[in-house]
Description:
The protein is α/β, with parallel strands linked by helices.
Amino acid sequence: MHRPEIHQTSPRLWLIGGTGEGPVVAERLLQRGWHLTVSVVGATAALAYRPHPGLTLRVGAIDGEQGVWAELAAAESVGWPYEVVVDGSHPFACVVSGQLAAVCKQRSQRLIRLLRPSLPGPASILSNLEDLRSRALQGHRLLLAIGARQLSAALACSPGAQHFARLLPSPRALQLAMAAGLAADQVACLRPGSQLEVERSLIRRWRITTVLARQSGGVTEQLWQQLCAGTGPQLLLIGRPAEPAGVQALSQNCLLEALVLPQ
């Protein structure tokens, strides 16, 4: 397939992405002639992006507002500023989204938030973890699929339940699980988007009656919606946080329509 020539006169875009919609959006934009800088947190996320002459990958956490400012300023200093910044970070990455919104507003930099859809399903939405206290969970076998950092708070908010956790396979996640008081046989380490049957086997093995996850709008939430449909466990979702005020938020299709280049 013919690819547009990439050079310094090509329009430039900074995408803060991950392994969700990011690679698809990047591929489509590259085909249209955009030059992309894509920021991902780790090397594993970077593998989801195919090499391309118009793609520059930045691997590692953005260093707060200072890091956002430095990236935008560096692009300007070489005479090739970003025409637009696309925030494709996780819906619960509130800190990153807030930092991008603050700096882009100060610099009058165009910013678009990539908005994930709301998924249909049997879930009950909680406004926050504290809402867990109002649920009748005494004696329930509760699977926590909310990330390691919130484990201690989730246990404190559901004292009558027997807890299990599904975590990322990282030493830090295991440390936090052990610190929260979970035993080794109460923890499973799996990467996001693992096959449906693997997660179903985990639910059967632990005889899970309730799953607590996050309303991410991505493949992980879709997986839990499928597993908990019908006669499956009840599904509780922590509602996604509000987007930063004043930031344009678009679905994937609308984002791609908004970034069509003139021929």
